[in-house]
Structures are given as C-alpha cells and as structure tokens.
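Before the break, one more example. Copy the sequence into your notebook; we will annotate it together after we see the structure.
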Amino acid sequence: AIINKWKGISTQGSGKDILSINSIIKNISLKMNIVHRLDKDTSGVIIIAKSNDVHSNLSEQFERRSVSKEYFAIVWGKYESDEGEIHSSIARSKKDPTSYIVDPNGKEAFTGYASKPLGIYNSEVIFKPKTGRTHQIRVHTSSLGNPIFGDEKYGGGVKKGKEYKPELYKYFSNQLGKFGRHALHAFSIEFELFKSGGKRIKLDAPIPEDFVDLEESLLGHES
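Here is what the structure looks like once it is written out:
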C-alpha cells in the first residue's frame, strides 16, 4: 500500500503525537508495517507492507540501496553548480541528540541533486539520496549554506531571513509563517515488486498546493 503523507503527521509517532501513520495502520491490521520513514513535516510517498514477507523483501531492497527516491525541495540561495553529489558523513550531534551534523567520523551518506533558480533568493532542488541517514537531505544541503526553506532545526528558518535587508526580512517572515513547515516533499519512489521477476514500479506523490503557492510568491518577489 502507498500513502501520500501530509505535513504535520508523524510516521512512527510518540507520546506527544495524537495521530501517526503507524497508529493508523495498526488499527487496520497487525500485519501491516511501515517500511521507511519521513520526518513529521516532510510530506510525500511512504510504502506500507501488507505482509511480513513483503516487509522483509522491501527492507532488503533498502539495505541494498536499490530503491530509488526523489525529493523536491525549496532551499535558500543558489548552488555553485546545477547538479552534483554531496558526499559527507553524518553523525548525531552531541549538543542536541535530536539533530545530526556533518562529521568525518560518522556514517557515510550520499545525496545527488539537480537545482535551478527560484526567483532571486531561492532555488528548487531535486534530491536523490543514495543512502538513508536520518535528516540526511536537510543536513547535507544545510552544510553547503543552502538550508531548506522553513527548516528551523538546520538554519533555514526565521534567523536565515535576518540576513536580508529589513523589507525582505519582513516578506520572508510572512512567507515562513504562512508555509508553516520545512519545504521538503518525498516526490517519488521506485522499487521492485514482490515476486514479480524483477519488475520495478515508480510511484509519484504530486507537489502539494502549499509548495505551489510558495513558489509563485518567491518568483513574483524580485525586489
């Protein structure tokens, strides 16, 4: 089963979360299991395994890195090149155990990207992570000085807007408030169907309307 997860809904859930994808599927069936996770404010496609055999098979595909994923994001600033790959190891932050940092002693992580300008101050980026480290995309793009728009944890929130002149700071503060999350969406996923003889399937989750509205505003704000 495939779910197009909306913003603000946790994948696994915790004591603070009234609603999570995991709690929903457990109310439906004890056999169904989430195969991978998205951050609470990341929207997009999630795979649900409807049997233990399928769950095991899909987990193996993730471990082999044969699952292809694409994420759509809006970031601050411009990349030095239109496309490339970020290769920086990632580790949990000692200062904040809920955050991750680029650390040469961490676990290796690879993220491909293709970017294009979005107005004067931002960019649209398609990310293709080859590994699946926690917060990988958010940490990688932030390490380049291009945090994801709205990502308070990794430098893409209101403080980033303060780098601009007062009238722009006011505009960006307004946009950040209206958007209300980080601008990262799990756009597509491609994997091998269970017992299909190698047949692969690619599934897309349409870009949400709040992204479209934000893009239009950023494109139209040229001062």
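The mean pLDDT is 91. The longest helix spans residues 166-179. Try to locate both features in your own notes.
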